[in-house]
């Protein structure tokens, strides 16, 4: 690790050693997905080399061994989120599936006229499942406004909460702006109004410690691949008392207690929501990713990323013609911006020729982009392996683009 804001952890990530477009790779698309440390890659390989078998039904040793590893991974998720019990953790394919699970199980109890409240900064995956649910049940989807700094308008949030509000869905951290929402305060307000709260933690879990008991939320969803784990695996925390009463959603093997043609009965605990053979290797590798971040410490990771974000924000502010989108006081890991006279996609393409990977577009948050009256932004998003050189490359790339475009 070299120079300013050096990362002692970059060497753990083999992919960062490969050149891209004959340049040193500056990977600043971590909001989309993170790279994987050797420990995660090795855990995946070790599972298939040493431990592969189907879980929960085998009488043989290897099946028991794979089951133990899978259940240990569930305990790792419980530790990461500080759940009261690891049996409150359901494995899913990721945040999107976690939210759809809640919409399809808990959502069965909705009545016409009931309300779901989300915020104006949600990812489509915390909007569309609720729209589909409202279409099925006659419930109504509302959203609380956000301010010009990209923060939730608390007055509007309070005003929208009412006795018909059954559930509030909100991002812990906005993927498009990096705004950190005051989740514990919002949960208190929602509970006072009698609503449950689902937190979309996709952009939070890799960037700061998360404690579902301190937040007091009812559901917490996240994706493994944004936490240095594999794609196709994620989790949903459900408050134990709620989980016990949720009906199943997908039917099949593993989620039942008994099946007959007269009717079936359901397994208890998280298994009721894990029909079929799950992503066993992915769960175990997610467990390895959790061990990895916890061994470093999420407070240390948060401090490193805050220093990167401060530095990048300051340097981008100094560039003429650059407009930052989302200037909340409390932000995590994400810098969204526009450059006068250059479309974000063109900017992204030019940065790519310099080995700088960013994202350009609406970031699956079209209502948020409409709020700002823009079609999209360029977004640099940080992870623990980024350092000052990545910011230097980003700033130099933006200046190069400005020169090329004559702006
Ligand atoms: N919510 C937020 C805030 C996200 O950033 C993302 C991923 N971009 C998602 C939900 C969806 O996550 P996934 O695609 O892993 O299900």
UniProtKB/TrEMBL annotation:
InterPro entries: Aminotrans_V_dom, Aminotrans_V_PyrdxlP_BS, Cys_dSase_SufS, PyrdxlP-dep_Trfase, PyrdxlP-dep_Trfase_major, PyrdxlP-dep_Trfase_small. It comes from the Bacteria. Keywords: Pyridoxal phosphate, Transferase. Its cofactor is pyridoxal 5'-phosphate. Pfam families: Aminotran_5. Its EC number is 2.8.1.7. Transmembrane segments: none annotated. The keyword Calcium does not apply. It catalyses: (sulfur carrier)-H + L-cysteine = (sulfur carrier)-SH + L-alanine. Residues 27-394 form the Aminotransferase class V domain. PANTHER family: CYSTEINE DESULFURASE, CYSTEINE DESULFURASE 1, CHLOROPLASTIC. Catalyzes the removal of elemental sulfur and selenium atoms from L-cysteine, L-cystine, L-selenocysteine, and L-selenocystine to produce L-alanine. NCBIfam families: sufS. Belongs to the class-V pyridoxal-phosphate-dependent aminotransferase family. Csd subfamily. This is Cysteine desulfurase. It comes from Castellaniella daejeonensis.
């Amino acid at each position: 690790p070299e120079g300013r804001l050096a990362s002692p952890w970059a060497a753990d990530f083999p992919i960062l050693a490969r050149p891209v477009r004959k340049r040193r790779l500056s990977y600043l698309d971590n909001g989309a997905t993170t790279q994987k440390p050797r420990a995660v890659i090795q855990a995946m390989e070790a599972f298939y080399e040493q431990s592969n078998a189907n879980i929960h039904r085998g009488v043989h040793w290897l099946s028991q061994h794979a089951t133990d590893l899978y259940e240990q991974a569930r305990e790792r998720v419980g530790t990461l989120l500080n759940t009261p019990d690891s049996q409150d953790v359901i494995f899913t394919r990721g945040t999107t599936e976690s939210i759809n699970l809640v919409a399809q199980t808990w959502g069965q109890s909705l009545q016409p006229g009931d309300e779901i409240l989300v915020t104006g900064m949600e990812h489509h995956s915390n909007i569309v499942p609720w729209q589909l649910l409202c279409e099925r049940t006659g419930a109504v989807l509302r959203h609380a406004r956000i301010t010009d700094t990209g923060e939730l308008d608390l007055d509007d949030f309070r005003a929208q909460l009412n006795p018909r509000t059954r559930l509030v869905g909100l991002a812990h951290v906005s993927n498009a702006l990096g705004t950190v929402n005051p989740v514990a305060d919002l949960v208190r307000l929602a509970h006072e109004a009698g609503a449950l709260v689902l937190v979309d933690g996709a952009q939070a879990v890799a960037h700061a410690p998360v404690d579902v008991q301190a937040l007091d939320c009812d559901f917490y969803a996240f994706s493994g691949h944004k936490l240095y784990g594999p794609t196709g695996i994620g989790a949903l925390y459900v408050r134990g008392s709620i989980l016990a009463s949720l009906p199943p959603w997908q039917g099949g093997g593993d989620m039942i207690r008994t099946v007959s043609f007269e009717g079936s009965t359901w397994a208890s605990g998280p298994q009721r929501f894990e029909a079929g053979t799950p992503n066993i290797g992915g769960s175990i590798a997610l467990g390895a990713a959790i061990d990895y971040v916890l061994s470093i410490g999420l407070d240390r990771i948060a401090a490193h990323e805050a220093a990167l974000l401060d530095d990048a924000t300051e340097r981008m502010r100094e560039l003429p013609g650059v407009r930052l989108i989302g200037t909340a006081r409390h932000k995590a890991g994400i810098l969204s911006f526009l450059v006068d006279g250059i479309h974000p996609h063109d900017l992204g393409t030019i940065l790519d020729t310099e080995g700088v990977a960013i994202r350009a577009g609406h970031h699956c948050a079209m209502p948020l982009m409409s709020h700002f009256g823009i079609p999209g932004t360029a977004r640099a998003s940080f992870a623990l392996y980024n350092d000052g050189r990545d910011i230097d490359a980003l700033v130099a790339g933006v200046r190069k683009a400005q020169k090329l475009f004559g702006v």
